[in-house]
Amino acid sequence: MFRLSSPTVPRETVIRCALVGVGSVGQSLLRIIKQRAQVLREKHNIRYLFVLVSDSSGTLVSHHGLDVERILALKTGTGFDSENFDDFDTTSKHPLSTYKVSLSRDKKANVSDRDLSQIWFYPAGTSQTTAEIFLNDQILPAETFRNNFILFEATPVNHDGEPGLSTVKNAMERGAHIVLANKGPIAVGFRELQQKAKAKRVNLLYGATVCGGLPVLNIGRYDLSMAQFTEIRGVFNSTSNFILCEMGAGRTYEAALKEAQRRGIAETDPTLDVNGSDTASKLYILFSTVISSHLSLSDVEKEGITEITKEKIEEAKAAGKVYKLVASAVKRDNQGGEEKREEEGDKWELCVKVELLPKDDFLALCDGWQMGVEFHSDLFGSMYHKVDEREPTPTAAAMLRDALTICGNNNFSRRD
Ligand SMILES: NC(=O)C1=CN([C@@H]2O[C@H](COP(=O)(O)OP(=O)(O)OC[C@H]3O[C@@H](n4cnc5c(N)ncnc54)[C@H](OP(=O)(O)O)[C@@H]3O)[C@@H](O)[C@H]2O)C=CC1
Ligand SMILES: N[C@@H](CC=O)C(=O)O
């Protein structure tokens, strides 16, 4: 007789994690993790438990896990059961420093003084930095990092890679795996971070740093791993691309930039979008990951879009052409050869410049919020990929994709 085998109930793997930076991307990541909790549990047997969350006001720590919903409510100003608060303004956005206050005043939350005493807040400026907290054994004892720990880093880009660079290095020191949206640390410290990850035997993934949700790095690194590249080209910055397209449609530079900021797509400092820096960082990260890690970010020549006027765009249009901010890595001598990719660095030219392209060119057709990449190689010929990214959700989803890759790589031990 046919018998049904007794169903095996998958045991949940709790993965402790930290989120540093709770802006457009960080909030989106929390939202996805919350919305997809059931899929994460049923399909992947995983539950992410945030024990540390940090914004510009400071760092919040609870070993029992922080309430993701409350963090989102605080950061988005959506409020949390406003009737249950006496005098908390639930319409405005609050820093993480107000987390404990909000919890203690929320009658519905029903938390005891003992629960509250298990939550610590370390204010920025007056206390330890997030990076220092990662090294502090009193705040984050060794068992926090046992059985795997993931740091999600989504703070703004700075020219020196900080504060992300120090946070990432210190977290690795404690054995944390790293998932970055912030390109600063990896663009500034590419080789150092790779070496440290190897020495500490942790995963360092940063797929979200290049074109958000478009898996450019995965395609280059995994899918095309056997290819010898001759050229890589791309439109890697949504904000500047949108501005150029909007100016072509008769709207102003200022209005287009404002729209990119409203959508949470522009950088915290949007100068980085329009002066070519963001594109240069993405090109450098892609090149270092896929071809050679022997160059530096300063080897990328760059210009921005600020010299492109409405008149120039009109003239180009009349000639059947389009201005695009193009990132390109071109091999100087296209002889091919069998050199190891690591030794190839000096044979390449990396640059970001405004190009005048025929209107039916692949990159010319990356319109509005689209970003695209072309890979040209010996084995695969020419390959074209593009994404239409109108909000930070795909970037956050790329962070989750990396986190799941890490969980798969490590075959995380299950525990309740
Ligand atoms: N937006 C996008 O579409 C994409 C963004 N990225 C990258 O992701 C990162 C985050 O971008 P985004 O979310 O848009 O930026 P936001 O400016 O929206 O958010 C930045 C967050 O970092 C916090 N922060 C600032 N300084 C510190 C600090 N010293 N310590 C801890 N937290 C700090 C801010 O705090 P507070 O909330 O208090 O201001 C805020 O929560 C950037 O590096 C960006 O380049 C990558 C791909 C796409
Ligand atoms: N500001 C960037 C998004 C993050 O990488 C862009 O406009 O493309």
Automatic annotation (TrEMBL):
<dbReference type="InterPro" id="IPR036291">
    <property type="entry name" value="NAD(P)-bd_dom_sf"/>
</dbReference>
<dbReference type="InterPro" id="IPR019811">
    <property type="entry name" value="HDH_CS"/>
</dbReference>
<dbReference type="GO" id="GO:0004412">
    <property type="term" value="F:homoserine dehydrogenase activity"/>
</dbReference>
<dbReference type="GO" id="GO:0009088">
    <property type="term" value="P:threonine biosynthetic process"/>
</dbReference>
<comment type="similarity">
    <text>Belongs to the homoserine dehydrogenase family.</text>
</comment>
<protein>
    <recommendedName>
        <fullName>Homoserine dehydrogenase</fullName>
        <ecNumber>1.1.1.3</ecNumber>
    </recommendedName>
</protein>
<keyword id="KW-0560">Oxidoreductase</keyword>
<dbReference type="InterPro" id="IPR022697">
    <property type="entry name" value="HDH_short"/>
</dbReference>
<feature type="active site" description="Proton donor">
    <location>
        <position position="282"/>
    </location>
</feature>
<feature type="domain" description="Homoserine dehydrogenase catalytic">
    <location>
        <begin position="215"/>
        <end position="403"/>
    </location>
</feature>
<comment type="pathway">
    <text>Amino-acid biosynthesis; L-threonine biosynthesis; L-threonine from L-aspartate: step 3/5.</text>
</comment>
<keyword id="KW-0486">Methionine biosynthesis</keyword>
<feature type="binding site">
    <location>
        <begin position="21"/>
        <end position="26"/>
    </location>
    <ligand>
        <name>NADP(+)</name>
    </ligand>
</feature>
<comment type="pathway">
    <text>Amino-acid biosynthesis; L-methionine biosynthesis via de novo pathway; L-homoserine from L-aspartate: step 3/3.</text>
</comment>
<dbReference type="Pfam" id="PF00742">
    <property type="entry name" value="Homoserine_dh"/>
</dbReference>
<keyword id="KW-0791">Threonine biosynthesis</keyword>
<dbReference type="GO" id="GO:0009086">
    <property type="term" value="P:methionine biosynthetic process"/>
</dbReference>
<keyword id="KW-0521">NADP</keyword>
<feature type="binding site">
    <location>
        <position position="267"/>
    </location>
    <ligand>
        <name>L-homoserine</name>
    </ligand>
</feature>
<dbReference type="InterPro" id="IPR001342">
    <property type="entry name" value="HDH_cat"/>
</dbReference>
<keyword id="KW-0028">Amino-acid biosynthesis</keyword>
<feature type="binding site">
    <location>
        <position position="183"/>
    </location>
    <ligand>
        <name>NADPH</name>
    </ligand>
</feature>
